[in-house]
Recover the amino acids of this structure.
């Protein structure tokens, strides 16, 4: 193993909170050596055994909830409330997939002509390469490790360089839960392209599951094509919020606040453009803006609700997005106060009078900025909502549930929150359409992503 290390920084305080090995391509291959050696043994364990191990991992995560939340907050900067919620959400993937592990699937059939029998089984796809982002360092890891281990796969995981500590802590808990050596290999590195392309070129790696930006997802899909590697992609989003004139405005304001500001806006499901019916615009803007002004921004240690952005570069980018929107005619209607702390803070900002064609509505903001657009006509609204390459999440707030459902069904997105600002749930199929991704995580579908179908065609002697 190479001796180099890199520092992990708290983006709220700029303190160094840890140091991890900076592994290279040789270490990446050595990790696959161990995962490939462990695969036959792990795949051969009884589903109930894998289920029990994942269940223990769930319990251990809850046992260590406070420590894990503090660790996430220290390397990611999110509030302790958000971090504790993430630990709960992340642990639920181990519980859910411990329950799914004992239902691997399979079938028995009689060929139409009679005689031949078909035995269909779901088998683990093999060594899986997992690549995760920094915004949910625990949940994005468990959402992949849970189903992979349930299916009988072994994994090599590359966490984001900004947040490697949480992944290492989860790996330690998995060992404590009974996961054998080699089944979960974590490779921390600042050379993401080198490590991941080494894995994708390795014939022993049969699967890549990636969560991150659409741009990097495209690169990995191209690399996966060379060896026709089975690929699951959870990519970027550009989630619209629709508020109709008959919506319950209290619910719409509360739901939009969560959809926009959870994780400081650094979520793939974050509300990115907020379309409010003109008849209720003034009321919505006043109430939403007042709530945004009250948001407490600062460090997790100070009990803040909103943390910093992940890096100085990310904060600069979001400040430029605000400036550009103002140049394009938007108005800063409300803003929260900034803290004294030295970190990469950007004030939660509401932008009113945003034009429907403004640049800010086209790309993921990935920060605490809420652009608000007025609408009058439902057909024109749906054209705007669907005029994007992305299709991950969307939110509709409408007074009549039937109208909310009708609108939801016409929005091109994999997940729609109706009268609520959160769609994530381990038992539901998480994923996007269009350039937001391929495949689903969670639910039953998440297990299928780590399985291959095989059938045995059996010559059946007639009696
Ligand atoms: P990113 O694409 O920059 O990085 C994601 C991961 O890929 C990291 O581990 C990174 O080190 C690695 N990586 C970067 N370049 C690489 C390369 N050339 N080859 C191989 N690996 C590479 O994304 P990010 O900034 O960490 O995360 C934010 C993005 O993730 C946003 O676009 C967000 O929408 C998306 N996201 C999507 C989901 C989802 O489920 N759809 C969930 C969370 C985040």
């Amino acid at each position: 193993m190479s001796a180099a290390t890199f520092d992990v920084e708290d983006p709220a305080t700029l303190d160094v909170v840890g140091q991890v090995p900076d592994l290279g391509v040789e270490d990446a291959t050595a990790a696959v050596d161990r995962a490939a050696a462990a695969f036959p043994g792990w795949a051969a364990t009884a589903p109930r055994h894998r289920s029990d191990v994942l269940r223990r991992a769930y319990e251990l995560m809850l046992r260590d909830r406070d420590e894990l939340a503090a660790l996430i907050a220290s390397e990611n900067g999110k509030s302790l409330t958000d971090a504790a919620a993430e630990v709960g959400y992340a642990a639920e993937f181990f519980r859910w997939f411990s329950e799914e592990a004992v239902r691997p699937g399979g079938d028995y059939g009689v060929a139409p002509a009679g005689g031949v029998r078909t035995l269909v089984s779901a088998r683990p796809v093999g060594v899986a390469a997992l690549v995760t982002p920094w915004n949910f360092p625990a949940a994005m890891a468990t959402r992949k490790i849970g189903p992979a281990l349930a299916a009988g796969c072994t994994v090599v995981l590359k966490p984001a360089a900004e947040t490697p500590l949480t992944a290492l802590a989860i790996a330690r808990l998995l060992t404590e839960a009974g996961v054998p050596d080699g089944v979960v290999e974590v490779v921390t590195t600042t050379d993401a392209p080198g490590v991941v392309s080494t894995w994708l070129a390795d014939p022993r790696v049969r699967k890549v599951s990636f969560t991150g930006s659409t741009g990097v997802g495209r690169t990995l899909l191209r690399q996966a094509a060379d060896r026709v590697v089975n690929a699951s992609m959870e990519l970027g989003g550009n989630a619209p919020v629709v508020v109709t004139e008959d919506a319950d405005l209290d619910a719409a304001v509360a739901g939009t606040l969560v959809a926009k500001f959870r994780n400081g806006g650094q979520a793939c499901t974050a509300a990115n453009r907020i379309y409010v019916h003109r008849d209720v615009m003034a009321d919505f803007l006043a109430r939403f803006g007042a709530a945004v002004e009250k948001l407490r921004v600062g460090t997790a240690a100070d009990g803040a609700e909103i943390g910093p952005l992940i890096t100085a570069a990310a904060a600069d980018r979001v400040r430029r997005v605000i400036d550009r929107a103002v140049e394009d005619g938007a108005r800063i209607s409300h803003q929260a106060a900034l803290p004294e702390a030295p970190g990469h803070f950007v004030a939660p900002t509401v932008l009113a009078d945003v034009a429907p064609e403004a640049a800010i509505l086209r790309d993921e903001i990935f920060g605490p900025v809420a652009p608000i657009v007025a609408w009058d006509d439902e057909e024109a609204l749906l054209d705007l909502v669907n005029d994007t390459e992305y299709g991950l999440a969307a939110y509709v707030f409408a007074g009549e549930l039937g109208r909310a459902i009708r609108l939801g069904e016409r929005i091109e997105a994999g997940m729609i929150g109706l009268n609520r600002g959160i769609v994530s749930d381990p038992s539901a199929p998480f994923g996007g359409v269009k350039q937001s991704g391929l495949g689903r995580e969670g639910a039953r579908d998440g297990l299928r992503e780590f399985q291959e179908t095989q059938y045995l065609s059996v010559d059946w002697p007639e009696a």
In short: The first strand starts at residue 5 and ends at 9.
